[in-house]
């Protein structure tokens, strides 16, 4: 059994609990970091969440953090908090794997990505990097370079992606905070499949550098076990960095301020299917129940669709073209070594013309205008995060389905990458098979605080449960079934 505090096992404590323990000197960053690494050693062989683990470096950083806390001089608001970095982001002195043996960095990065730099400045302890499919191209996490990352609720199922490693690490307490990226749902999808909180900020809210392969649909954001932890992380990630010329002006917002203010009086639209998505009945029922919770919390909830047609072709023109651009200099031998699905979308993009892309950009602008107008009436939009529960690991889409690409089952997420709006996923219950269902909350541009406040209100009313909620020697009831320990097959 791992070390515990009076508030529970060390790896399950929130940012606020850890910081309070450090301040009171009842907890040590070194003890917490060691507990996280023990957790990784015990579980990661079963789920394959980590690309690299830096136990020696992180423990040195934890010792330095402990000295600062002992002296009463913490470096910043996340001093001593164990944190992971998605394997797509630069870390000075390290080679980002990019989920690939072809497009991986062959020389160490000379600088940190903005998100990594801000976390270091805040005192976070970087414990390792988490798996992503090659360049984050798909919404599941597997690839030729590292195999399959597996869902912590059932190792036969996918955790989603592309930030699948980060989601698994969060769900199992293998770190407290986790950097994800989201170009078509890559934070929200794995958050939905694994039952954690994941927030895609407004585009530009978190500076990004170098630019994503997928351009202006791609966001960087926080993933964690709670909304409050996501808010604490966003406070740091949103700090300015001049290298991102798309970045929004820094406004100094504190996303923890007012987080518990509730949602009374908000006008919330509830769309069960966006008007065109086929949704699994169990998922639909759980999200409908969640919509009722928002009403019980004092919001006005109206079932209504936002009024746009399926934007799949618009997204494909942007996404596939980005993949083509990123792989344009690869040789035929290198292309043959890539994930076959990535090669397929690159080949499809070769058939796009300039006018195809520009017309898709025009249609994207119209979609954005539609949502701007929609939010003149509604403060927030809630939908399912996903139309289905997690399916078999190692597949891009469920076996025997009519889907041809991951984008077809990610129909609730990628529209809001096209529109660049803030959107958060959080758990809203479990299927009969014990798999999480996700609820998505979408806000108007720049309304990250409102999205997080609504997410926190729901989370407080319907507290999440995790695959490690049962510790060795204990049993609890989960949706009417007895679960023991971590249910990894």
Description:
This protein is of the alpha+beta class. It has a single domain (11-483), classed as Amidase signature (AS) enzymes, CATH 3.90.1300. Helix content is 34%, strand content 15%. It contains 14 helices and 17 strands. The chain has an eleven-stranded mixed sheet with strand order 3-5-4-8-10-9-14-15-13-11-12, with helices on both faces. A two-stranded antiparallel sheet has the order 1-2. The longest helix has 21 residues, at 354-374.
Level-2 CATH architecture: Alpha-Beta Complex
CATH superfamily: Amidase signature (AS) domain
What is the total domain count? 1
What is the makeup of the main sheet?
11 strands, mixed
Low-confidence stretches: 469-489
Oligomeric assembly: single chain
Entry summary:
With 489 residues, this protein is an alpha+beta fold.
List keywords for this structure.
489 residues, alpha+beta, Amidase signature (AS) enzymes, eleven-stranded mixed beta sheet, 17 strands, 34% helix, globular, disordered C terminus
Topology:
Elements: E1 4-5, E2 8-9, H1 15-24, H2 29-47, E3 50-53, H3 55-71, E4 82-86, H4 114-121, E5 125-130, E6 142-143, E7 147-148, H5 164-171, E8 177-182, H6 188-194, E9 197-200, E10 219-224, H7 227-237, E11 267-270, H8 281-296, E12 300-303, H9 312-326, H10 332-336, H11 340-349, H12 354-374, E13 380-384, H13 415-418, E14 423-430, E15 436-442, H14 448-461, E16 476-478, E17 481-483
Parallel strand pairs: 4-5, 4-8, 11-12, 11-13
Antiparallel strand pairs: 1-2, 3-5, 6-7, 8-10, 9-10, 9-14, 13-15, 14-15, 16-17
Helix pairs in contact: 2-3, 5-6, 7-14, 9-11, 9-12
């Amino acid at each position: 059994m791992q070390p515990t505090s009076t508030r529970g096992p060390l790896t399950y404590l929130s940012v606020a609990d850890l910081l309070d323990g450090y301040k009171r000197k009842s907890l040590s960053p070194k003890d917490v970091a060691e507990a996280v690494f023990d957790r990784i050693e015990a579980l990661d062989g079963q789920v394959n969440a980590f690309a690299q683990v830096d136990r020696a470096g992180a423990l040195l950083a934890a010792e330095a953090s402990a000295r600062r806390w002992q002296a009463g001089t913490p470096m910043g608001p996340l001093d001593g908090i164990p944190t992971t970095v998605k394997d797509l982001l630069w870390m000075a002195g390290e080679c980002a794997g990019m989920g690939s043996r072809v497009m991986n960095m062959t020389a160490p990065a000379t600088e940190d990505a903005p998100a990594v730099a801000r976390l270091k400045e805040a005192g976070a302890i970087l414990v390792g990097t988490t798996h992503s499919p090659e360049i984050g191209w798909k919404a599941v996490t597997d690839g030729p370079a590292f195999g399959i990352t597996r869902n912590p609720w059932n190792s036969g199922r996918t955790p989603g992606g592309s930030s699948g490693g980060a989601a698994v690490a969060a769900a199992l307490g293998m770190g407290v905070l986790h950097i994800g990226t989201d170009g078509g749902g890559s934070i929200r999808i794995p958050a939905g499949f694994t039952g954690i909180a994941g927030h895609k900020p407004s585009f530009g809210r978190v500076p990004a550098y170098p630019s994503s392969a997928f351009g202006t649909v791609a966001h960087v954001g926080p993933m964690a076990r709670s909304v409050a932890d996501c808010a604490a992380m966003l406070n740091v990630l949103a700090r300015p960095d001049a290298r991102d010329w798309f970045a929004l002006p820094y406004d100094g917002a504190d996303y923890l301020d007012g987080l518990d203010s509730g949602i009374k009086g908000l006008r919330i639209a509830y769309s069960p299917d966006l008007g065109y998505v086929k949704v699994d009945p169990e998922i639909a029922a759980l999200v409908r129940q969640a919509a009722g919770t928002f009403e019980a919390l004092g919001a006005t909830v109206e079932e209504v669709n936002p009024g746009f047609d399926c934007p799949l072709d618009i997204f494909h023109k942007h996404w596939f073209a980005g993949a083509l651009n990123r792989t344009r200099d690869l040789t035929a031998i290198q292309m043959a070594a890539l994930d076959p699905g990535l090669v397929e979308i690159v080949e499809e993009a070769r058939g796009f013309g300039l006018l195809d892309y520009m017309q898709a950009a025009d249609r994207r602008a119209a979609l954005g205008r539609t949502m701007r107008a929609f939010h003149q009436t509604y403060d927030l939009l809630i939908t399912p995060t996903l139309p289905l529960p997690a399916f078999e690991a190692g597949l891009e889409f469920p076996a025997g389905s009519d889907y041809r690409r991951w984008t077809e089952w990610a129909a609730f997420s990628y529209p809001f990458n096209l529109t660049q709006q803030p959107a958060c996923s959080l758990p809203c219950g479990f299927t009969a098979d014990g798999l999480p269902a996700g609820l998505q909350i979408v806000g108007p541009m720049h309304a990250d605080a409102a999205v997080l406040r609504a997410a926190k209100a729901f989370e407080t009313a319907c507290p999440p449960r995790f695959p490690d909620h049962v510790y060795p020697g204990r049993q609890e009831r989960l949706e009417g079934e007895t679960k023991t320990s971590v249910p990894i097959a």
